Amino acid sequence: MICQKIELPLLYKEAGLKNNDFKPYLKTYILENFEEFSKDRKRPLVLICPGGGYEMLSEREGEAIAIQMNALGFHACVLYYSLKPMEFPVALLDLAQAMRCVRANAKEWNVEEDKIVVAGFSAGGHLAASLGVYWDSPLIQKYLPCSKEEIKPNGLLLSYPVITTGEFAHKDSIKNVLGSTKNFSEEDVALEKHVTASVPPVFMWHTNEDGCVPPENSFAFAMACRKNKVPLEFHLFRRGGHGLSLATKETAWSNGSGIQEECAVWVKLFDSWMKNL
Asked: 239: how many CB neighbours lie within 10 A of its CB?
């Protein structure tokens, strides 16, 4: 396995955007090919955005997810993106640069270039979905000179994502992603309002008992996808709180909570979805 830390350019400084001087970076989990059994094999890649309310990054939704993706036969990368205090769209620019980096290294890393999926958990789900709705808009190109194809995700894996503003919003996430900007408003980060037919196929799951980020967030995105004929697979599990990650012992909280056997099946469901992407 090729594990390395790749620092990303500090676009926010060039653009005059506020940030906390954090240096965004990618951590890679790239599976190697071997002459004996995998020569010239190309694999899908999952680019992971951990959650944490745009205030911290959950380690439970980083490396453990990457290793699970490796176990499925996928390459993986974890993005350590900008957090509070910042101004929108700093974190989105981090993700766009990460996607550009993955595509630039696709040949060297033996990546299947039409199966690069952005995965996000909670607030990381908001970030992943932001790239899903904004990859072909002028917003990113304003700050990052690149072609749309360089930053386009081929699919989205959204796990209990923050999506909307208003009644069902995770207000801290929305406040933190916007920061002190005067150029953007909650309308710009209410992602269900920006879904078009160009959003890539979506695999999404949530739990009915999520009291932190209500499932109405996923409902709103799912309905917008349906309206715009975006290919969608959406699973709503009856039990389980917020932030389940793998929902297994591997990612359980220190007090033993966070294990939800019926939700852990999301990994197998995603694997099947990915094979048909």
From this structure: 11
